Amino acid sequence: MRSSHELPGHNDFDTRPPGAPRGAGPARYGDDRRIPPLNPTPDPAAKDMPPEADLAVAACWTRLVREIAAFSRREALASRDVVVLLPFAQHLSLARAAWLALDHAPWIPRFETTQTLQRSLGPPLPAAPGELAFDPVADPLQAAQLLREQVPDWPHRDPRGFALAVARLNETAQVLARARLALPPAQRAAWLEKARSLLSGPTGPGQQERALARLALEWSNTAATMGADALYALRPAAWVALRVGASDPLVESLLAASSEPVLWLDADLRAPGLRSVPGAVQVSECDDFEDEAQRAAAQVLAHLAQGEQPVALVALDRVLVRRVRALLERQQVPVSDETGWKLSTTRAGATVMGLLRAVHPRAATDDLLDWLASAPAPVDGRAALDAAWRRDGITALRQVDEARLEPAALALWQQWLAIGEPLSATRRLALGEWLSRLREALLRAGLWESLLGDAAGRQVIDALRCRAEPPAGSAWGQQAARVRFDADGLRDWVDGVLEAVSFEPPSPDLGGAAPVILTPLARAMLRPFAAVVCPGADAAHLGALPKPQALLGDALAAALGLPSSAQRREHERRAFAQLLRVPQLTLLHRRRDGAEPLQASPLLLQLQFDAREAVRSGGEPRTPVAVVPRPLAHPLPVAPALLPDSLNATAYEALRACPYRFFAQRLLGLAEAEELDDAVDKRDYGTWLHAVLQDFHRQRQPGAPQDDAALLLRIARARQALLARDDADFLPFAVWFEDLLPRYLAWWHAEEALGANVIDTELELLAQPPALAAAGLRLRGTLDRIDAVPGKGGHGAHRILDYKTSSETTLRERLRQPLEDTQLPFYAALLDASRGVPPGDVQAAYLSLDGREGVKLLAHPDVAASAATLLEGIAADFTRLQAGAPMPALGEGSACEHCSARGLCRRDHWREDRA
Questions:
Q1: Distance (Å, rounded) from C-alpha 285 to C-alpha 295?
Q2: DSSP class of residue 600?
Q3: What pLDDT score does 39 carry?
Q4: More confident position, 486 or 125
Q5: Within 13 Å of residue 512, how many CA atoms lie on the same side as its CB?
Q6: What letter would DSSP give residue 423?
Q7: Cα angle vertex 610, ends 604, 612, to 5°?
Q8: What angle do CA 308, 313, 314 make, to 5 degrees?
Q9: Dihedral pair phi/psi, residue 294, rounded to 5°
Q10: Which residues pair with 787 in a beta bridge?
Q11: DSSP codes joined into one string, 838-853
Q12: Is the dihedral of CA 278, 283, 289, 295 positive or negative?
């Protein structure tokens, strides 16, 4: 692994060690050899080696170890006492293998990185309280504490601004600490004074950023120096350093301060022209994201099929390479991942975050259902709980009524309450207490052992520090006891930790190197890959100018010895040039990213210009597959045994709209489950309005119209409280109802004056009309309301009212052709069959309650005749279906335009000669 001070973006650019010019100093070996420059100058040590041969990775390592051996002989050194500093841990085995391949190889030198060398000198001491520890978990907490001490009300006044300031403070402190630790101990005090002077500028624009940078500087000064001091105290026989890509300020300073002999070896490819590329370079221009991912995966597979491995897959675009990896895994190709991905995207991280979301006081029912669905084993009662909540329209856990749950759903609900009980505290608790409660909740849920048995789960537990209680006297223990969170704060902290820490998947156990290695661009340098596939070589992911350091900017960064944006861009260019050493290099980029056009990388364009004779256009690596068209026959299902014995208006309307959809959704039970959405939509409003009007007409006292408005408003508020809807969520419909209320009361008072009164509301009926006796079919339904109204000839009549919140125009269109309307005639026939009210004595109407247009009564012109015709149609249809008539998919009309069963009938794959 790479040391912390070797992370991209924190390395200086090709600086010479102070006071150490090339070839200067009696105790220094200053040839400072490059391996190899593209346009090399004469080198006495390589007279017999053609410069082009050094472009290959293996030749580069051979020359490197030969230079080290020659340096040891020239300085009369024991090679085993020479320390060779390499950029990455992946280079160590390559250097050792190259050394052992030398003829008459002497004792092997100490090949190290700065990090491995520090570890060999002794374990690091635990961080002291308040100290900058380069810890992605503890440091943000300490940064937040420092800011609270400076501006106590900032977290409450501007939470988002405070969170951004914490992130920038932490980032800047780590950058400054690495810059200071890279210096020799004697130079750190002077650097600190210089930094303080530069950051103590006048007030004005950027004052807040400058203040945060000063705080970051003082905090960075608390970082422990023991590891870096141990390196400076080391006295090997000589130092050798390999410079490639981004230079390491610690290595530069360490060797500049050394009194022992020093050899610099520079393997960067520098030249105005890149015409001498040893391998094959091809560039593929892709259409879009998916095309690029498929081509990259196919190119990797093509290399493997030809026996070219290992293949490097360079991670320029993390989202894209995740897709490429998924495509490779479908082909059972093992991939060793050196990049990792956020713990938040792992299943273990999602499980923990799902638990915290589900126990939140304002959690939605979907939060709990999603968490139960992610459980390692199926959960008994989940389907029953889901069905109960969808039936009652419950969208928030605080709305759950245990009395309405079936036994299986109730058992699961009570089990959940026991699981979430440790995390249900409403007061602020210390972080350590929260972590203990989280561990207890995971144990109760039976997830603790499964997390420990999973690589990502173990890393999640360790990142959250909830494996065990922290030692009371440790820095982390004190911090966990001091920091306090409420439920929202805990969830945000866990989410931040899982976003900050990367999951490092274990390498596949193949008994050797993996055939495909997913690696960052910088770590692909000087590695003996048979081929490199580099998707994402576009202007957004390769060669773009990096953003300046947020609190410092480029000018201050340069003054403090930090890399500027231009220097980091140059580091990336050098790393990209190193890819030219491999035998096979494929660069891919896409023309557009979604709807936005996307240009090729400027580094790629420069390569195509400089080495136009060596760079060729990539072909199509995917293998075409001939697909024979297989159009489907028009579906004609027959299912007399599945026909129901009762029918409601909605089901029969579905049968009339499309018999196949009726078959799929009603007979096979494949209807889509309704979404449980926290947002209040018009359907929720309609359900609420039905309940309000039902309560109103049951509770009101006739003869007191002056009290109706207050009663109706009181009932509306009570019903809203039962729904557990916030005023903010319900505000649009509350305004709508306030506009509707006086209009509805004015209409109803006028109806009462004409002799109307309410007989019943929300009336559930089930009956069998004589016309359906032969088919053995009953009708069922719920009538919104039945009124007694004056009829013709002075006789009383029953009026069926169906509440509608749709517009008056829509309802008038429905009634324009009475025989096409199913609902009102269906209700008239059902009322006759159940209550013996002849259709001739029944009126039926839609009551439009669209608040914008007032209240309109839209009567069916002849509901009795329509009811008789409807019963004849139902009897004829079900007699045919019971006799084995098919239920075809109509494949036309408005019912087919937006149909959830379209994927079942395969409307888009029918033969053209369908009936």
A1: 10
A2: B
A3: 29
A4: 486
A5: 4
A6: G
A7: 85
A8: 135
A9: -65, -40
A10: 758, 799
A11: -GGGEEEEEEE--TTT
A12: negative
374 phi, psi to nearest 5 deg:
-90, 0
Q: CA 833 to CA 296: how far, in whole Å?
A: 69
How many whole angstroms separate alpha carbon 860 and alpha carbon 463?
67
Query: How are beta strands 796-804 and 429-430 bridged, if at all?
Result: unpaired
Cβ atoms of 813 and 795 closer than 8 Å: no
Spatial distance between the Cα atoms of 532 and 586, rounded to a whole number of angstroms: 6
Q: How far is it, in rounded angstroms, from Cα 799 to Cα 561?
A: 87
CA 327, CA 291: separation in Å to the nearest integer?
Answer: 12
Contact by Cβ (8 Å): 782, 802: no
Looking at the chain, how many residues does it have?
Answer: 915
Residue 123 structure tokens: 């374990």
Cα–Cα distance for residue pair 848/139, rounded to 1 Å:
61
Quick one: tokens of 884?
A: 């084995």
CA distance 638 to 668: 12
Q: How far apart are the first and last CA of the chain?
A: 67
Q: Which two tokens stand for residue 780?
A: 């069922």
Q: Which fold, 11-121+234-266?
A: Rossmann fold (3.40.50)
d(CA 614, CA 277): 7
The C-alpha atoms of residue 642 and residue 639 are separated, in whole angstroms, by: 5
Q: Residue written as tokens 């207050």? A: 710
DSSP string, 662-694: HIIIIIS--PPPPP--SS--HHHHHHHHHHHHH
What pLDDT is recorded for position 207?
Answer: 85
Closest by CA position to 722, among listed 675, 683, 684: 684
Q: Domains of the chain: which residue ranges?
A: 11-121+234-266, 138-226, 281-316+521-617, 344-503, 678-739
Q: Could you give the dihedral angle defined by the CA atoms of residues 124, 127, 128 and 129, in that order, rounded to the nearest 10 degrees?
A: -170
- Alpha-carbon distance 579 to 542, whole Å? 13
Element containing residue 495 per DSSP (H, E): helix 487-500
Calculate the alpha carbon distances from 663 to 488, 580, 645, 915 in Å: 47, 62, 14, 19
Extract the tokens encoding 865. Answer: 């005749």
Residue 308, amino acid:
E
In 3D space, the residue among 261, 219, 295, 265 whose CA is nearest the CA of residue 54 turns out to be 265
For 546, other C-beta atoms within 10 Å of its C-beta total 17
CA nearest neighbour of 526 among 265, 841, 838, 734: 265
Give the chain's mean pLDDT: 85
Structure tokens at 45: 């040590």
The whole-angstrom separation of Cα 650 and Cα 654 is: 6
Contact by Cβ (8 Å): 405, 413: yes
Segment 772-795 shows an average pLDDT of 88
pLDDT at 16: 31
Tokens of residue 379, six digits? 């959960």
Distance CA 56, CA 859 (A): 88
Q: Give the span between the Cα atoms of 694 and 785, in whole angstroms.
A: 8
pLDDT tens sequence across 638-689: 999 999 999 999 999 989 989 999 999 899 988 776 665 556 667 778 888 8
CA distance 531 to 300: 8
Q: Angle formed by the axes of helices 407-420 and 382-392, to 10°?
A: 100
pLDDT, position 388: 87
User: Does the bond joining 236 to the residue before it have cis omega, within 30 degrees of 0?
Assistant: no
Residues 125, 128, 134, 136, CA torsion sign = positive
Q: How far lies 563's CA from each of 7, 13, 175, 795, in Å?
A: 12, 7, 10, 95
Pick from 271, 266, 277, 270: nearest CA to 244: 266
Question: Hey, what are 766's tokens?
Answer: 């089930």
Domain 281-316+521-617's class? alpha beta
Fold match flag (11-121+234-266 vs 281-316+521-617):
yes
CB neighbours of 735 closer than 8 A, spacing ≥ 6? none
Cis ω on the peptide bond leading into residue 36 (within 30° of 0)? yes
Q: What is the pLDDT of residue 907?
A: 83
